[in-house]
Amino acid sequence: MANLAKPQLHVAVGVIIRQQQVLLALRHAKQHQGDKWEFPGGKLEQGEAAENALKRELREELAISVTACQPLMQLAYDYPERSVLLDIWLVSAFEGEPHGVEGQPVQWVDIASLHQLTFPDANQPIVARLQQQFCGLA
Ligand SMILES: Nc1nc2c([nH]c(=O)n2[C@H]2C[C@H](O)[C@@H](COP(=O)(O)OP(=O)(O)OP(=O)(O)O)O2)c(=O)[nH]1
Ligand SMILES: [Mg+2]
């Protein structure tokens, strides 16, 4: 049965690509889906466009300025405690060198190796799409 009280979060997510690698950040243990590797991003503010939220979050979390991005896919996923709508963007150009502004570990990972890491449960289709699109993997 649908849980009508369950919050529904609209989240802007950046797949930041440089030379066949993607930048990942480790979610804090205390966060929802903690201790898993995420594509950096965060919740849209009231009335905010997804692209703006993406740019704001990547500035806040990584101290980079996005200069080129394209929508990749949208993904709805029901966690037991919340639903999310992930608005996923490819970030193909940016200014600044990304680092974890909030102390979160970050790493560049080969797209071909992405499936070896632990992501939030919603993320599997993103990893599959990236490997398909950039590595020709089925
Ligand atoms: N950033 C990000 N969030 C993801 C991914 N996959 C996934 O299921 N999520 C979920 C986890 C959270 O429920 C939600 C993001 O919410 P959040 O609370 O971390 O967002 P935020 O950055 O605005 O955090 P905060 O300022 O409220 O601390 O989206 C992903 O790859 N990246
Ligand atoms: Mg975030």
TrEMBL record:
Its EC number is 3.6.1.55. It catalyses: 8-oxo-dGTP + H2O = 8-oxo-dGMP + diphosphate + H(+); 8-oxo-GTP + H2O = 8-oxo-GMP + diphosphate + H(+). Keywords: DNA damage, DNA repair, DNA replication, Hydrolase, Magnesium, Metal-binding, Mutator protein. It comes from Alishewanella longhuensis. Belongs to the Nudix hydrolase family. CDD domains: NUDIX_MutT_NudA_like. It is an enzyme of class 3 (hydrolase). This is 8-oxo-dGTP diphosphatase. Residues 8-133 form the Nudix hydrolase domain. The keyword RNA-binding does not apply. Its cofactor is Mg(2+).
